[in-house]
Amino acid sequence: MANFFNEMTADGLAHHASAEVRxxxxxxxxxxxxxxxxxxxxxxxxxDLTFRRVGITFAVYGDDAGTExxxxxxxxxxxxxxxxxxxLQTGLVQRVRAxxxxxxxxxHDQNIIKAGIIPAxxxxxxxxxxxxxxxxxxxxxxxxxxxxVDIVRAGQGEFYVLEDNLRVPSGVSYMLxxxxxxxxxxxxxxxxxxxxxxxxxxxxxxxxxxxxAPMGINxxxxxxxxxxxxxxxxxxxxxxxxxxxxxxxxGKDLFVSDNTVFMRTTRGPKRVDVIYRRLDDDFLDPLAxxxxxxxxxxxxLSVYRAGRVTLANAIxxxxxxxxxxxxxxxxxxKFYLSEEPVLNNVPTYQCRKQEDLAxxxxxxxxxxxxxxxxxxxxxxxxxPASSKQQIEDFRQRLLARPHGYIAQPTLAxxxxxxxxxxGIAPRHIDLRPxxxxxxxxxxxxxxLTRVALQEGSLVVNSSQGxxxxxxxxxxx
Length: 476
Known about the structure:
The chain is an alpha+beta fold. The protein folds into two domains: 23-214 and 309-344 and 411-473, no CATH class; 347-409, Dna Ligase, domain 1 (2-Layer Sandwich). The protein is built from 13 helices and 23 strands. The strands form six sheets. A five-stranded mixed sheet has the order 3-23-22-19-18. Strands 13-5-4-20-21 form a five-stranded mixed sheet. Helix 10 (300-305) links the parallel strand 11 and strand 12. Helix 3 packs across helix 11. The protein is globular, with a radius of gyration of 23 Å. The relative contact order is 0.18.
């Protein structure tokens, strides 16, 4: 009996003849058992070759080789039945609504602080808090137009939110390309399974961005703004611009004149109304933030403050995806929506609190400890997978800066059968659905399933050796 929830089988024996296959996987399992091993191997090689040819890669910062790597793709899908997805979707919409209301509140009336629910210093001392945004009216009061919420499954199969990515969440291009690849390799599977489509995401995203254009703009010009080709997610920036049929621009392609943002084109300047920006706040405007930034547009903040351009996501959104704010999201849902949270947080110890720090220090070997501003699986301790020396080294970091960390129990993340060197074996996974907020909140039925390819590993990030799978939401 496996000590984690297996997505495909009820007893964890994913590739075992006696395994009891969960109902929503039966059709796929029957098909898989009929496939000769060499057929599957050939298809996997074809997928690798195609991804390499298309250039679906990511750069790893600090990688000595400085090379681009292929994100490993697994051909066994992660399948979610319709009823489970409906519950997830309800919880995600609720959560993102509350997060948008929270960000609006902290830059306006600060009711949640006045009510004593979140300590003021948690917000005002947050590295992502932008005092420049105080009192600024943003289009439709939306701050996180695109949210990537990381969901894990643990225990007997309960869903938990691991973190909220509201700044510049990435990964949606892999969701779309993984689906395209599966349809190309195994068209017969899509003929016999009722799998909800995801390929309309770029259309949904464009509609969403157009819906939040500045007042009075009926036919808005939307652009995708990238830091440039050396960014780790550049493939995605180019992919989304191309799929939406809009221009991919860098800071140097834009300029501010007459309190308006313009794009340089071969036909002369063209007004820009909505910027889907894929670079961090600090680099957006050298006049307002980092003066050494060559990636941004001088004067952009003043146009934004005047309501003459929409930035997605809004400046200052990062305060709500910080790990020190994460423990308060259930309170936000109750405060702003007067509802009970549909999706649970992972229980979290805030090391800035004396009693939480004491508990964390006493239980380091069994906890996951994360930097509150950390990302990408860096700056964290996975207690059960760490040596005594690593734990002691981390203990010193924690004692030196307790307010910079949170701790959580090590969840036995659910696993999905995955092709590995010696056949099929369970590997731990998470799920990042993408929630779009505009005039309405919408999402495609699916998300990016990331898989920890190393045996026993719980770290699914691509920068740490993780791979991806296609995510099937069944329509029945």
